[in-house]
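User: structure tokens for this one?
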Amino acid sequence: MSVRIDGDLVDQLTTEKRMYMAPQMGATEVGIHSTPLEDLYIILSSVSDLQGAVVENAPEARTASFPCRVNPLVGWIGAGGFILTIGSLIAVWPGAERVRRSSGPSTAARPSRAAPAPVR
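Assistant:
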């Protein structure tokens, strides 16, 4: 299938239905065209005579339906995950004050702050 925008050819997409004879199971391959702003999905949903089209190439298998879906901004999901990871790393990074406190003198060298002895 040809994908055109304003008459200009953008992409050639293929979509297919595969029929596996041993377990009598089918699978659909979806044609996908991705851009930073949207994804176009073309799906072969039905053929009038799938068995004849696959095995015998029957002439009556001439009708097929192709639902098309446009999902906007799908490519930005990965970018959002990356930004979330970087933001999380920045949030858990130790601040300068915490680093200064932990690099000061060790607790063994500090005088103890025990409570004063009670006066009798």
